[in-house]
Design brief:
0% strand; 74% helix; 16 helices; mainly alpha; 325 residues; MetI-like fold
């Protein structure tokens, strides 16, 4: 197993390098350093001297890949590619275009994002699986039909509606929770409970229907009929046969949610004033601080690859055939 993990990590290194290089090239092809200076200085008639000073202050006065003004190894290290891109490989994120320490910002904002993302992720998966199993258990009854109609209604409504409705009814009308804001410590519960509920409800319709389709496909296979013929109850068949075999495609779908555990939910954090990584990314885009955007793209790549590796490891425990291979 250790050899397999090392091999998967080695496979991931070229992917990370390519994504890092492509992101860097796209960014500096679309935006010249002079354009970045003008955007940050916020003046259409900014002077040439101000542009030069801003570029020098933020390290954008260097050549992109090769610096012919210096000798030796510095010709490669004293460049934009090394300073702005390669350093990210060792998680040295440097300063943003607005002179903020990106590493410190990530540390401060990671907690609020995890306070929303982890409960939403865990409770969401559990509730979705339970609802899907109930629909399979009571299939071809009014319970299943009602649940399917409810799921279709839930998935047809925009997430923005859930946010606005929750803020108006739960926060403003009933005064159960604050409308927005955040406080660290145990008091954060009252600020994150509503975003967590909205995250779970907004994803319930689509995910429950998808899990139901997976479980129904397994329930119609011959081994399930054989298990029933041996006298196992429907509940035993679902829990001991259908659920384990349906877990493989579910794990594949769950992996795409792992980056959101750290990068945060863009809409929820923005609307509820949660100072997490999601709102951090939105603010960086609005302020055209693309140094932060590049870092968030890089972190998203890292987290997605980690999710794929964890999924492969989970496969080996869920499916004995993979473990034997």
């Amino acid at each position: 197993m250790l050899v397999y993990i090392i091999r998967r990590i080695l496979y991931a290194i070229p992917v990370i390098l390519v994504v890092n290089l492509v992101t860097f090239m796209l960014y500096f092809n679309l935006n010249s350093t002079d354009d970045m200076a003008r955007m940050q200085l916020g003046n259409k008639h900014v002077t040439t001297e101000a542009i030069v000073d801003w570029k020098k202050e933020h390290g954008y006065d260097k050549p992109i890949f090769y610096n012919g003004n210096v000798s030796g190894l510095n010709a490669l290290t004293d460049t934009l590619f090394f300073q702005k891109s390669l350093k990210m490989l060792v998680f040295d994120f440097g300063m943003s275009d607005a002179n903020r320490n990106i590493g410190n910002d990530l540390k401060l904002r990671m907690g609020p994002s995890l306070a929303i993302a982890i409960p939403s992720f865990i409770l969401g998966v559990i509730i979705n699986v339970l609802v899907a199993l109930c629909m399979v258990l009571f299939r071809e009854t009014w319970i299943e039909r009602t649940a399917v109609i409810t799921c279709v209604i839930l998935m047809s409504i925009s997430t923005l509606f859930y946010i606005i409705f929750g803020q108006f009814v739960v926060a403003k009308w009933w005064h159960w929770v604050p409308l927005s804001g955040y406080s660290p410590g145990w008091s954060q519960f009252k600020f994150v409970i509503l975003p967590i509920m909205i995250a779970i409800i907004s994803s319930l319709g689509a995910n429950a229907r998808w899990y139901r389709a997976i479980f129904l496909e397994e329930a119609n296979k011959e081994y399930v009929q054989l298990a029933k013929a041996k006298g196992l109850s429907n509940m035993q068949v679902l829990l001991h046969h259908v659920l384990p075999n349906g877990a493989l495609p579910i794990l594949t779908g769950v992996v795409v949610l792992i980056p959101s555990l750290f990068l945060g939910s863009l809409l929820l954090e923005s609307f509820f004033g949660i100072p997490g990584l999601g709102s951090y990314t939105i603010d960086a885009i609005l302020q055209q601080d693309f140094a932060i955007v590049r870092v968030m793209v890089y972190l998203g790549t890292i987290l997605y690859i980690i999710g794929l590796i964890l999924t492969d490891l989970a496969y080996s425990y869920v499916d004995p055939r993979i473990r034997l291979e």
